[in-house]
Amino acid sequence: MKQIQQVRIPTRSLWKKSYLGEVASFYNGRAFKSSEFKEVGTPIIRIQNLHGKGSVVYSDLALPDNKFADTGDLLFAWSATVGPFLWKGPRSIFHYHIWKVVCKSIDKIYLFYHLKFLTETLKDVGNGTLFAHITKKQIESYPILVPPKQEQIKIAKMLSCLDVKIELLLEQNQTIEELATCLFHKWFLNNRTNPKNTIKLSKRIDLAYGKSLKKALRSGTGFPVVGSNGVIDYHYKFLVQAPGIVLGRKGTIGSVNFLLENFFPIDTTFYVISKENKQPLIYEYHLLKSIPLQGMDSDSAVPGLHRQSVLGIEIPQDSQERINQFNHTCYPFYEKISTNLRQIRTLEQLRDSLLPSLITGRIQISQ
Q: CA triplet 253, 259, 264: central angle to 5 degrees?
């Protein structure tokens, strides 16, 4: 990686004042009615799809070319989850709450990071939250300082290098997770129909409620803070000793997260208490993932996962010896995943600390 050095303000003399609307065009997406969604056709990009979540819906409409996004295009979600994305999927139609950003006189990858910086700046102004949405007029009139093209490319290359390393580690973790899931299915689920010996889930585990920890009270470093959608922050204190399993109780109902480091589950979750001494909980983690918990939300006005309903589920009474063998086999997998996650956190912290300094010109990359 190229060396970074401190520079004086005069080095920004070649940076030009401009507005986002001058360096790029922002194209509105197509506003769809739910009745227009099809089961086949051209995929439609909705905000949840930008995060790799949610189901994919399709359209058979013939639309102008500027309503389509191709692989590598720069998109910006302006409502709900605000921020820039580089589209990784196939040619698709982007929904109304998303803009396609087409660069005029600025490097695309550099603009992606500049928009990330802008998003974080707006979060800081809003004390960690963003407004419900940003208007097209607001984004186009936003003032920016634009460095020379070569400087843009160097900044984009340094930041994207860190993101590529993060992506590779995430892909490795996904592969390891899939391998462990395959082993679980082979050892416990395949060729098993209507098992004769069953027990209630409550015989193996108990579920305890997470604890409220408001964002303003979190330290931002230390142990993972876990919500229903996974790790959401960090805090200097932990509530539960590892290993641990966290279930989504509210929000992302029925989600299952496994942790090999001490953690703090918040009040939208349950965490698992094992009834077997000194168990790494890997078997229980995969067992819970194999149960369709997402469909078990209660019928109350505020949907949520009901503790007693989950604990009352009938499960096969698998051999403890077999369970121990599975845990022993898979434990190194999750040690590797945990190591990768720590590396990812370090890389993210480095990227996030460099981002504002590079974008504002406080530091520059040496030749």
A: 70
